[in-house]
Amino acid sequence: MAILEVKGLKVYFHTRNGLVKAVDDVSFSVDSGETLAIVGESGSGKSVTCYSLLDLLPKPPAKIEGGTAFFDGEDLLTCSPDRMRHHRCNDIAVIFQDPMTSLNPFLTIGEQLIEPLIYHPDKTLRQSRPKARERAIQLLDEVGIIDPHSRFDCYPHEFSGGMRQRVMIAMALITEPRLLICDEPTTALDVTIQAQILKLIKKLQQTHDVAVIFISHDLGVVAGIADKVLVMCEGTIRETGNTDSVFYRSQDEYTKKLLAAIPSGPKKLESRVKPETLIKVSHLKTHFNDYSKQKIDGKYALIKAVDDVSLNILRGEILGLVGESGSGKSTLGRSILQLVPNTSGIVNFGADQLTGLSPRQLVPWRRRMQMIFQDPYASLNPRMTVYETLSEPLLYHGLANRENVLSRVSELMDEVGLARGSMRKYPHEFSGGQRQRIAIGRAIATKPEFIIADEPVSALDVTIQAQILDLILDLVESHNLTMMFISHDLSVVRYISDRVMIMHHGVIVEEGKTEALWANPQDPYTQNLLRSIPIADPLLERARIENI
Amino acid sequence: MFKFALGRLMQAVPVLLVVITVTFFLVHSAPGGPFDADKAVPPEVLKALEAQYNLDQPMWKQYLSYLGDVVQGDLGPSFKYSGRTVNELIGAGLPTTAELAFYAMLVALGVGITAGITASMRPNTMQDYIPMSAAMIGICMPSFLLGPLLVLIFGIHLEWLPVSGWGDIPGDKILPSITLGTAYAAYIARLSRGGMLEVLSQDYIRTARAKGLSEPIVIAKHALRGGLIPVVSFLGPAFAGLLGGSFVVETIFQIPGLGRFYVQAAFNRDYTLILGMTVFFSTLIIIFNLLSDMLAIWLNPKLRQEIRGSN
Amino acid sequence: MNKNTLSQPATSEEDGSSLWNDAWIKLSKNYLALAGLGILILLCVVSLLTPWIAPYSYEQQNLDLGATAPSLQHWLGTDIFGRDMLTRIMYGGRVSLMVGFIATAVALVIGILWGAIAGFYGGRLDAVMMRIVDILYALPFMIFIVLLMVVFGRNILLLFLAIGAVEWLTMARIVRGQVMSLRNQEFVEAAYSLGLSQWTIIRRHIIPNTLGPVIVYTTLTIPSVMLLEAFLSFLGLGIQPPESSWGLLINYGVETMEEYPWLLIFPGIALSLTLFALNFLGDGLRDALDPRTSKD
C-alpha cells in the first residue's frame, strides 16, 4: 500500500526576475519499507518537491500551485498548520544535506534530540525529560555514537561531520516516523564516511521499517540504495521505474546522458609521458600555526598540512592527487606553486629551484605554471569582464600587445568553448560550467607548461563535469601540458590520470600507475578508500556493499 | 571565564593610564588658568590658590602626584565648588544618572527587542514596515530635538507630564527616560531584526520546524539566542552612548546628574572636575564593554568552551 | 600597464551588465532611497547657491518686527531679532552639511588606509592595529570631544578633526574585514599565481571589490557626523555664533519654544529630513550592493 501518494504537484517561485516553475506536474508514490530515489542535477526541483510536502519552503517566493499529496488519506498540501505539526512530529522526518549547518550550534545535541518528544503537540504523547533522554541515548547508541551518555550533553561543534550526520539520523528517527526524507545526506561527507552513513541508513530502514525518499545527484549512491528511481530535470519527471530498469533499460535521453556522463573505467587518453622530470619536490613541509586553538606554552599548535612530501612529475604526465577533506592535498598544490610559504624542502621546476625565490624573481616562473581553482564562483573577479580577466595575464606577461590582444582573447574564448560575443559580460551572467571555462582560459592564457587543477569539477553537475573534464583533456593534449589533478573523487581521478598519489594526514601513503594501483592497492587506507566508492551500476553496487 | 576577565582588565590598565595622561596634559595645556575668570583676582590670593591646588609645582610633579591619588581612588578637589572633592560631586550625581541610564536602557531593550523580533517574523510586510519606519524616525530624531518636542506636546500642550526635575513630582522620570532611550531602542530594533533574520534563514531553523516544533518554541529556543548576540555586543557601546546622551537630557530636563555636571564643568573650566569625571567615565565604560563582551561570549557555547579550555 | 591597452574591445556584439549596473537598477526600484537621493541633491544645490538665492540677508536684524509666525513675507517666520528663519536655516544647513561631508572625508581617509593596511598585511601588524581600534572603541569619545572643545576653544577645523577621528574606527573595521575576506578569495589567489605585482592586485582586484561597502558606510557616516555636530552645537560646544548650524538653531529654538514653537520645529524638520534622506539612501545602497540580495 502506498504510504504517500503525490499527484500533479506544482510548485512555482515568484521571483523578481519572473516565474520559475521549480516543480511542474510531478507525481509519484512510495510504499512502506520502500526506498524511492529522486535523482537530478542542481535546479531540477528534487529538493523543492520534498520540502513542499512538509511545508518547509519559504513562502513567498514559493507557492504551491496545484496537486495533491496524500499521506494516510490526508492531503499534506492543504492540511492545517496543526495537522502539519502533527505529521512532522509523528509521521515524516527529514535528514538534511549539511550536518554542519543543520544542527543548532547554541544547544546541546541531546536537547535537540528530545525536543520532538517533550514538546509534542499531542499532550498525551508528550514525554518527560528523563524518559526522552533515555530514548535518545538508546538511539545515539544505535546510530553508532560512542559513549552516548556523556555525548548527550555535547554541543554540535564537538562532533565531526560524519558524527553530526549520525546525530541528525538519530534525531529523525526519534519520533519513529513512517516516512524518512533524506536530502543528499552524504553529499557533504568524505567518501569513506559516506559509505558508513549509507550503510547505517539502510540498516535502520530495515529495523524500523520506514519508507525512504532519498534525494541525490549521485547515481552511484542511488544504484545501491534505491528500489525505485525518479529522474527529474528542470522541474519535471523524465523517467521513473524500478532501479534496474532505469539504469539498464533507460528510455529517456536525459537519463541516458546522465548515466553516460559518469566518469567510469580507466583513462581514455593515450599517455604522452616523456622521460623528463618537470617538477621535482623533495621533503616539502608546510606547517601552519593553529590560531583557532589557544596557545600552549606561548606557542600555537602546529597544523602539519604537508609533512615531508617528495614527488616527481614527468613532462606530459597527468598526476592525480587524491585525498579526503583535510588531507593537505590543496595545500600541497599551493606549496608547489609557491602560493603559500614552504616551511622546508625544495621544489624544482626543470633544472631550476623555485623555493627561496622572491616574489619578483618568481614572476617569469608564474607564466610557466598555472592553477585552476575549485569554485568557479569565487575564482573570478566579479567586477571584471571576461575580456578583462583573460587579457590581464596576456598583457602583464607581454604575450600580447594593444593591437593583437583582442584576437588573442578571441582565440582563447574559442579554445575553451565560449561564444566570442559574451566577451564583455561579467562572471555572474554565466553558469557554473561556463565560469569554469573562463577560469581555464585564464590558466592557459600564458601558455604554461604545468598546471595544477584543484578540484576543478567538484562544484559542477555531473553532465557539466563530463564536458569540463573533456575540455581539460583536450587542452592537455593540444598544449602539451603537464598537470597535477587534485580531487577527492576517485572515479574522476582514475578517468583522467596517468599516475595517482593518495594523500592522508599530510603525507603520501601510496602512489602508482593508475590501473595498477586500482587493481592492487597496498596501503590499508587506500584499500578502504577504493572500497568505499559507489558504482553507478545497481548489480555491481549491491555486490560492493555486500562485500564491505 | 574569570581568568579571561582578569586578562581583559589587565589590558585596561595601560589604556586607562594613557587616558589619564592625555587628559591631564590636555587639560593643563589649556590656554587660560582656572582662576582668571570673571573678576580679576589679586596676585597674592592667586598665589595662595595655586599653592593650595599644587599649581606652583612643576608639571611632572603635579602629574605624578595626581596619578598617585587616582590609584588610591582620590580624584582631588574641585576648582569651582570650593571645599568639595570631585569624589563627592560624582557621588552626588551618580545615583541620579545611573537611575536615568537604567530606565533608558529598559526602554531601549524592551521596545527595541520587541519591535525587532516582531518585524523579523514577517519581513517585507506591514508587520515589518511599521516598526522599522518607527525605528528610522527614532534614529533621525535626536534626543535634543525629541526631548523638547515631547515637553512641548505632553508637558506644555497636553499638561500630562512634568517637564523638568527628577524624583520631585510623580511621573517626572518618564519623559527623560523616553528621550534618552528612544534612539537606542531604534538601533536595537534594527540590530535585533537583522540578527533574527540572519538566524531565521539558517538551516538549523528549518531542522527545528521539520521536527514539528511550534513556531513560538522555534523562535524562543532556537532563534533568539543567536539572533540577539548583535544586541548583546551593542550593549557596551550603547552604555557609553547613554552617558553622552545624559549630557543633553539632563540639561533639557534640569536633572542634577553627572551629565549636567560635566557640561557645567566644561563651561566653568573646572579642570579637576573634568579630569576626574573623564577618568571615572572611562573606567566605567571599559568595565561595561568588558561585561557585554563576556555576555556575548558566554552565550556562544563554542567560544565559552575555548575560554574555559584556556584556563 | 598602459591604461589604453585595458580598454574594452569595441567590436563586441553584446554588452555585459556589471554589478554596478545591477545595483543601480535595484536602487532605482527603491523609491525611498531615490527620494533620499533627490532630497540630498536638492540640499546640496541649495547650500551651494545659498548666498545668491537666500530671500534675506543672514545678519540683518529687524527688532521692530521681532518673532513672527510663518507668513507670505517670511515663509518660516522670523526669530526674536526679526531675522528670517528660512535664510538662517539655509545658512545653517551649509555649515551642517559641510561638517558632515568634511568630517566624513577625514574618517574615510584614515579608516580606509588603516583598515586596508591591517587587512592586506595581516598577521602581527593586523593584530596590533586592530587592537588599537578595539581600545579606542572602548573610550568615551563624546567626553573627549567635549574636552577638546573646552581646551582648544570652539574651532570649526578642530571640530572636523575631532569628529573624523571618532568616526574612522568603524570604517577601519569594515575595510579591514572586507580586505581580509578578499585576500583569501580564489580570484585574488589566481591573480597571485599569474604573477601580478602586489600593487596591481590591490588596484585591480581588491579596491574595486571593497568600494560597495565603503560607499554604503560613507552614506551612513554622514548623518551620524551631522548628528554629532548638532549635538555639540546644541550643548553650546560646537559651532559658535555668528556662524550657525541646525544644532545651534535648535538650541535657540528650545529656549523660546513655549512662545514661538516654529523656531524649534523648522530647524528640527530640516535636520531630521536630512538624516532621513541619508539613512534611506544608505539602506537602499546596502540592499542594492549586497551580493546576497542579487542572487534570487
Describe this structure as you would to a colleague:
- The complex is a heterotrimer of chains A (548), B (311) and C (296).
- Chain A is an alpha/beta fold and 548 residues long.
- Helix content of chain A is 37%, strand content 26%.
- Chain A is built from 20 helices and 20 strands.
- In chain A, the strands form four sheets. A six-stranded mixed β-sheet of chain A has the order 6-7-8-3-9-10, with helices on both faces. In chain A, strands 16-17-18-13-19-20 form a six-stranded mixed β-sheet, sandwiched between helices.
- In chain A, strand 7, helix 7 and strand 8 (211-216) form a beta-alpha-beta unit.
- Chain A starts with a strand and ends with a helix.
- Chain B has a single domain (86-310), classed as Orthogonal Bundle (MetI-like fold), CATH 1.10.3720.10.
- Chain C contains ten helices and no strands.
- At the A-C interface, helix 12, strand 16, helix 13 and helix 14 of A face helix 1, helix 7 and helix 8 of C.
